[in-house]
Design goal:
Helices cover 64% and strands 11% of the residues. The chain is α/β, with parallel strands linked by helices. The protein has two domains: 332 residues, Up-down Bundle (ABC transporter transmembrane region fold); 239 residues, Rossmann fold (3-Layer(aba) Sandwich). A hairpin with a 2-residue loop joins strand 9 and strand 10.
Length: 600
C-alpha cells in the first residue's frame, strides 16, 4: 500500500490529491467509465453482422468477420438462438440499454462526488483556518487567503470536474483500444503509435498552459488583496480623490488577468484546431498501411475503425479535458500549498479545560521575539488578581500589544512561564480559555447583519438568549439607541456598521463581549479612535464594569486610566514600574515623560 501511495505521489500527484479526498469514490468513477465503454464497444461490434443481414435478409450472420470478437455471436448461438436480423437487433439494443443505465449511473455519481469534494475542500479550509496560529496569520498574505478561500475553491472544483472527465475519457479510450486490439492487433498498434507521436506535438503547448495557469493564480491573489484594501480604505480614497487613481491601478491588474486568460484561450484554440485533422491523417495512413502493406482483411479493419472512431472521440475529449485541467492546475497546486501551510502552523494547545477564572494570572520571566536579533519582551514578571483593572502603557514599540497577545493566548512566549490559577496555560485547551475572554479593539468588529446577530454571534432567539441580549445592551449603555432603531434588535447594521457612529459601534462590540459571560475584558486602545466626548462616555461604560471583570487595557490616552487598580509601564520590552496611577506618576520617569507629552 505504501508503494502504491509513493507511486501516486511521485508520478500522479493530482490523482493522489483527489484520491486523498474521495478514496473509493475515484475507483467507482473509473469502473463505471470502463463499463460504459465496454457495453458501447460490444454494441458497436454487432454493426458488422447487422450490415451483412441487411444486405441479405435470408442470410445468417457470420462470426468470422468479427475476428477475435466472434465470441459475441457464438454466445448467441450457444443459448439456442438463430443469428437472424431480429436477434442481432435486439441483442444490440440490450447492449445500448445497459450502456444507458451505466452512463446514467456514472454521470449521477460524478455530480454527487463533485459536490462531496467541493464541500470537503471548503470544510477543510475553514477548519484549518480556524486552527491557524495567530503568529503565522500576522505574516500571511491576506489577499492570498481571501482568493484561495473563495475564487480558488471554485477553480479547484473546475479542476476536479475536468480531471474526472479526463479519467473517464482515458478509461473509455483504453477500453476501445483494447477492443480494437482484440479485433485487429496490427491496426490497433499502428493507431496507438500514431496517437503517441501526435501527443508529442502538443507537449509544448501543454507546458505553456500550465505555466500560464500558475501565473493566473498569482495575479488573482494580488488583485483580491488590492480589492480588500480598496474596501477597507474606501473612506480615505474617496475623501482624498485618490479613488480614481486607485481604480486605474486595479484596472491594470484586471487587464493583466485578462491577458493571461486570453493567452490560455489562444493555446486551447490552436490545439482544438489541430487535433482532428491530425488524427484523421493518422487514420488514413494506418488504413493504407494495413490494407496495402500488411494485407489485413478490410472487414476486420472496418470493425477496428469503428472502435478507433469511438476511441478518437474519447481521445479528443481527453486532450480537451487535459488542456482545460492544466488551466486550473495552478489553482490545485495553490490549494495544496495553502492547506499545507495552514496545517503546518496550527494553534498550539493543551488538553485541560479552563472552567473559569478564580484567583490570579502570573507571568514569570517571559521573553518574546519574532527574530532573535530583535527581542520584543524581556524578562517580564507580572501578577494580575481576579477582577483587577490593569493598564499597559508605554511608547510605541514598547511591547504592550505583544504582552496582551500573550495573556490572550494568541501567541506563545519564547521562554518563561504563564500561569492561571496555579495551572500552566500551555496545559490548558486554549479555546476554552479564549471563550472566557472579551476582546475589544480600536476598530470595532461589526458584521453586516442585525444588531441581535452582532451581539449574540448568531445565537438562536430563545427567551433566555433574548434576555441575555437585552442585559448586555444595558451594561454597554446602548439599549436606548437599539430601542429607537426602526426594527430594534432586528435592524441590519450594514458593512462595518456604516450607519453607526464610532462610539455606537464600540458599544455594540462591548455588548457582544458582555453577552458571552466572560471573565476577562481585554481592550486594545478601545477608545483612541473616538472624539473626546464619546471617549468619556465609553470610558464611563467601561468603568461601570470595574470589579465585575478582570480588565486589561492598552491605553493611548493616559487620561483614561486614572482609575485603574494597576498601571504597568513598559519601556523597550521591559517593565519599568508597576503600581497605582499616582504612585507610578511619582516614581516612573518614563511614565512621567508620557504624561507631560500629553499634558494630562
Amino acid at each position: 500500500m505504501k508503494g502504491l501511495k509513493k507511486l501516486l505521489t511521485n508520478f500522479l500527484p493530482q490523482l493522489a490529491y483527489f484520491y486523498s479526498h474521495l478514496r473509493y469514490r475515484m475507483v467507482v468513477l473509473l469502473i463505471t467509465s470502463i463499463f460504459v465503454g465496454l457495453l458501447d464497444g460490444l454494441g458497436l461490434a454487432l454493426f458488422l453482422p447487422l450490415l451483412e443481414l441487411i444486405a441479405d435478409s435470408e442470410a445468417t450472420a457470420s462470426a468470422e468477420k468479427l475476428g477475435n470478437l466472434a465470441f459475441l455471436l457464438d454466445g448467441i448461438t450457444a443459448i439456442g438462438l438463430e443469428l437472424n436480423l431480429t436477434v442481432v437487433l435486439l441483442t444490440m439494443l440490450c447492449f445500448f440499454i445497459f450502456k444507458g443505465i451505466a452512463t446514467f449511473f456514472e454521470r449521477y455519481m460524478r455530480v454527487v462526488y463533485q459536490q462531496y469534494f467541493i464541500a470537503k475542500i471548503r470544510l477543510e479550509n475553514i477548519q484549518a483556518l480556524a486552527n491557524y496560529s495567530y503568529n503565522a496569520f500576522v505574516s500571511a498574505d491576506a489577499g492570498a487567503i481571501q482568493n484561495t478561500m473563495s475564487g480558488e475553491v471554485e477553480r479547484v472544483m473546475q479542476a476536479f470536474r475536468t480531471y474526472s472527465m479526463m479519467l473517464q475519457q482515458l478509461m473509455m479510450l483504453l477500453t476501445y483500444m483494447g477492443l480494437a486490439f482484440v479485433a485487429s492487433p496490427e491496426f490497433a498498434v499502428l493507431i496507438a503509435i500514431g496517437g503517441i507521436l501526435s501527443n508529442f506535438l502538443f507537449s509544448t503547448l501543454y507546458r505553456k498552459t500550465k505555466v500560464l495557469s500558475k501565473e493566473l493564480v498569482q495575479r488573482n491573489h494580488g488583485f483580491q488583496g488590492y480589492v480588500i484594501q480598496a474596501v477597507a480604505f474606501f473612506k480615505y480614497l474617496k475623501a482624498t480623490a485618490t479613488i480614481r487613481k486607485y481604480a486605474q491601478f486595479l484596472e491594470k491588474k484586471v487587464v493583466d488577468i485578462e491577458n493571461t486568460t486570453r493567452k490560455m484561450g489562444v493555446l486551447n484554440s490552436i490545439m482544438m484546431g489541430l487535433r482532428e485533422p491530425l488524427m484523421i491523417g493518422i487514420v488514413v495512413g494506418v488504413i493504407f498501411i494495413q490494407v496495402n502493406l500488411i494485407g489485413g482483411a478490410l472487414s476486420t479493419v472496418i470493425l477496428s475503425l469503428l472502435f478507433f472512431y469511438r476511441g478518437l472521440t474519447a481521445l479528443t475529449a481527453l486532450q480537451t479535458s487535459y488542456n482545460q485541467f492544466l488551466g486550473f492546475s495552478g489553482s490545485l497546486e495553490n490549494m495544496s500549498v495553502f492547506v499545507a501551510d495552514l496545517k503546518a502552523n496550527p494553534t498550539i494547545t493543551g488538553k485541560d479545560s479552563f472552567k473559569g477564572f478564580r484567583q490570579e494570572i502570573v507571568l514569570k520571566q517571559i521573553d518574546f521575539h519574532y527574530t532573535a536579533e530583535k527581542p520584543i519582551l524581556k524578562k517580564i514578571d507580572l501578577k494580575i488578581t481576579k477582577n483587577d483593572s490593569v493598564a499597559f502603557v508605554g511608547e510605541s514599540g514598547s511591547g504592550k500589544t505583544t504582552l496582551l497577545n500573550i495573556v490572550a493566548g494568541l501567541i506563545n512566549p519564547k521562554s518563561g512561564e504563564y500561569w492561571i490559577d496555579g495551572r500552566k496555560v500551555n496545559d490548558l485547551n486554549i479555546q476554552s480559555l479564549q471563550e472566557r475572554i472579551g476582546y475589544i479593539t480600536q476598530d470595532p468588529v461589526i458584521f453586516d447583519d442585525t444588531v441581535f446577530n452582532n451581539v449574540t454571534f448568531w445565537d438562536q432567539k430563545t427567551p433566555e438568549n433574548i434576555k441575555r441580549f437585552e442585559t448586555a445592551l444595558q451594561k454597554a449603555h446602548i439599549a436606548q439607541l437599539v430601542e429607537e432603531l426602526t426594527k430594534k434588535g432586528d435592524t441590519r447594521l450594514g458593512n462595518n456598521g456604516v450607519s453607526l457612529s464610532g462610539g455606537q459601534k464600540q458599544r455594540i462590540s462591548i455588548a457582544r463581549e458582555l453577552y458571552k459571560e466572560v471573565d476577562f475584558l481585554f481592550m486594545d486602545e478601545a477608545t483612541s479612535a473616538l472624539d473626546s466626548e464619546t471617549e468619556r462616555a465609553i470610558q464611563q461604560s467601561i468603568e461601570a464594569l470595574k470589579g465585575q471583570y478582570t480588565i486589561i487595557m492598552i491605553a493611548h490616552r493616559l487620561s483614561t486610566i486614572k482609575n485603574v487598580d494597576k498601571v504597568v509601564v513598559l519601556n523597550q520590552g521591559k517593565i519599568d514600574f508597576i503600581g497605582a496611577y499616582h504612585e507610578v506618576l511619582e516614581k516612573s520617569t518614563a511614565f512621567k515623560r508620557m504624561i507631560q507629552l500629553q499634558e494630562v
